[in-house]
Amino acid sequence: MAAPKKGRKPSAQGKPGRTLVLILIAMVALTGGMFLSGHTTPRLGIDLAGGTSITLKAKNEPGQKNAVNQTNMETAVGIIERRVNGLGVSEAEVQTQGNDNIIVNIPRGTDEETAREQVGTTAKLSFRPVLSGMPVTESGKESPSPSPSASGDKGKAGESGKPSASSSSSASPSPSSSATTQGRAVTGALAADATPSGSASAEPSDSTSPAPSSSSSADAAAAAQATDLQKRLEALDCSTAEGRLNASDKARAAKPEDPVVACDPDSGYKYVLGPVAVEGKRISDASAVIDPQGVEGWIVQMDFDKKGADQFGKITSELAAKGAPQNQFAIVLDGEITSAPSVNTAITGGNAQISGNFKQEEAENLGNMLSYGALPLTFEEQSVTTVTAALGGEQLEAGLIAGAIGLALVVIYLVVYYRGLALIAIASLLLSAALTYVLMSLLGPAIGFALNLPAVCGAIVAIGITADSFIVFFERVRDEVREGRSLRPAVERGWPRARRTILVSDFVSFLAAAVLFIVTVGKVQGFAFTLGLTTLLDVVVVFFFTKPLLTLAARSKFFADGHPWSGFDPKRLGIKAPLRRTRRPSAPLTDPKEA
What we know:
- The longest helix is centred in the C-terminal third of the chain and has 33 residues, at 487-519.
- The protein contains 15 helices and 15 strands.
- A hairpin with a 3-residue loop joins strand 2 and strand 3 (101-107).
- It is 46% helix and 16% strand.
- By secondary structure, it is α+β, with helices and mostly antiparallel strands.
- The protein has helices at residues 16-37, 46-49, 70-85, 112-120, 216-235, 241-253, 306-320, 360-374, 389-418, 421-447, 453-482, 487-519, 523-553, 557-560, 570-573; strands at residues 51-60, 93-97, 101-107, 125-135, 156-159, 260-264, 269-273, 278-279, 283-290, 298-304, 329-333, 336-339, 342-343, 351-358, 377-387.
- Helix 1 runs parallel beside helix 10 (421-447) and helix 11 packs parallel to helix 13 (523-553).
């Protein structure tokens, strides 16, 4: 019995049908996910959907110099972006232009007056004493903690230069990027000297210390205010992003002399805060440094001006004599608690430090927030431009027409030059376009991707990149045919050479897109992102669709025999017909003896 012949090892390309089925299944899955998510169209940017573009100019207050610098401008961009995103506009663009301008682009659907109010207001930072607090549970229902304790506070304020043991906490900080307290904030008596107009505690219990008053009417008013504050604290929703946004909006709009309720999102607590004790503009400097004593690691040092030093010394003297959580003060930025350190001793020197096992990034972020809040940086509205939906629709229509013209020219070229092979190229282009559309629709809600006019340009450029990959592959196969091979071996021998060229070409395109995305800002990033995405899809389509489809086509008589419209016509390729090599019939062997 003859031994079986050794053949080539089976490969994935040896079963092109299976590869085609896999990519079609992936396409169906992505399309189904798009419809299930309810996002069947890509999100449009401001230049296509319409919207509002606001230009703000940063200014120094009289008597201040060098407040408008790159660091503070970047911090302002972050704060304004947080405000705008709080309006539910995740595709808004906030970026610097030049040295002192900030451009805010808000797509259509957002109230223009609200947006202008949000982005044009200078960030407000203040120090407020903590009057009472309670933890936030996952269900959104809060309950007062029965056992007050300050041992878990993340940061504590102490006099600069004193041993950190007297001003630091043993608790580990949260992994948040901003410094926040992790201490157990509990309900308790509101100090008489911490409430406005002699108000009493927000906790209507027997332990409440009533504020001294010379009249029963004042006592009644204080008790009513305390009860109202407690109800507001219990009703405050800090368990959802929307609830925290509403809380910060109300706290930001409150007068400095009024108590507020606010959320500390990183520690999981919410607090009743007293009137503003020290305004952020009283901080003359704040920076993150390593503890010179070598005990606390990274700390944040603060320096106050003369008036701020007097105010800070007074409030810390009052807080140091109290128990938790009323020995804490909250650092409030734009109505949201950034940190709530506790106080052990009075700080009267105008210098303070916040410590609590900070990581370097946490300390730097807190120091930057304190510095920005202290800077008298204001913004003047330079211009407000509204792009109508009609204008955006016209730009989108123009972009789609340009893409259709480019695609039509590519198709005409493929049909004229490659004949039947054009069907494979067109099918690959349609698959690439479908994948691009589906992914853009899914990436909108996933990462906030918004299709703008430069992104449309990137998709148009990608048509040429994808067509170039087909041309490289087809020409490699035709070269093999010119060397005398039949079509099926020519496809398999031409693929490795074409594959290397395609990968190198797409790598260069993707590298250019990545560099462009990193070094640019704003709308140009949309062009770079789309170009990079379509380049990756080109590799996927060529490897998992075009190659298997051509392998199957090579098995058909139409292509294998070199039909004039197949793209492998021997006359057009400059070789002798027939394209398929045939074996000559061997002559029958005769016995020499018979001859």
